[in-house]
Amino acid sequence: MIIVLLGPPGAGKGTQGERIAAVLGVPKIATGDVLRAAVRDGTPMGLAAKGYMDRGDLVPDAVILGIMTETLAATDDGAILDGVVRTVNQAIGLEQAVEGLGRRVDAVLVFDIDDEELVRRLSGRTVCDLTQKPFTGLEPGSPCPDGSGGILVRRADDEPDAVRHRLSVYREQTKPVIDWYCANGTNVATINAVGSLEEVEARALSALGR
Ligand code: AMP
Q: pLDDT tens per residue, the chain (210 residues)?
């Protein structure tokens, strides 16, 4: 099963993606995670992507299409794609990649949430510098509560100016992807992303017929 998760930054795609992936028994693929690992490792792709990411801009489609094709080819059972499709061009590229593998996008879940709640969530978010696990309401510099020995840090793109920019990039470049999938006849479901982790997960699974 290939599921595309869409929605603005901070809507909970990453957290819910993990949960849905665990229930369906398929991997979650997040281009943001792949890119952050490349930045940490100082690879040529990471060095090229870092500036775009810190500003909250989209990394060029060609880089994303490369990651997409490579990671999809390595998965047999399908995947939950978190933040992988952010432009219509990427949606077209993904369609070609999955067709080439004899598969299709089974569903698109759109996580719906208003801007005020997003800014509140992202400005209170820190991540562990070792595991990248996100936390809410804990101060940067505190020890990571996941027992990894890491320290909580704020992502550069969670600073208020970058958050505002990411939201406008989402509205201008990613929202049209929803219309593209609807016009393409793909099963698109909108999920109310406000609620407890369990409530949002139940809505997402129910949209997938689980
Ligand atoms: P995320 O962790 O999904 O919020 O992604 C962090 C950053 O990585 C984004 O703000 C972009 O700079 C970059 N990125 C991740 N996925 C994509 C994508 N599909 N297209 C373009 N840029 C991306």
A: 999 999 999 999 999 999 999 999 999 999 999 999 999 999 999 999 999 999 999 999 999 999 999 999 888 889 999 999 999 999 999 999 999 999 999 999 999 999 889 988 898 999 999 998 899 889 999 999 989 999 999 998 998 888 999 999 999 999 999 999 999 999 999 999 999 999 999 999 999 999
Check: pTM over 0.90? Answer yes or no. yes
Q: Which H or E element spans position 12?
A: none
Pairing assessment for the beta strands 79-82 and 2-6 based on DSSP bridges: parallel
Positions marked catalytic: 13, 86, 125, 155, 166
Do residues 71 and 29 touch, judged by C-beta distance below 8 A? yes
> CB under 6 Å to ligand 1: residues?
9, 30-32, 35, 52-53, 56-59, 64, 83-84, 86, 90, 157, 166
CA of 73 to the centre of ligand 1 (A): 20
**What secondary structure letter does DSSP report for 112?**
E
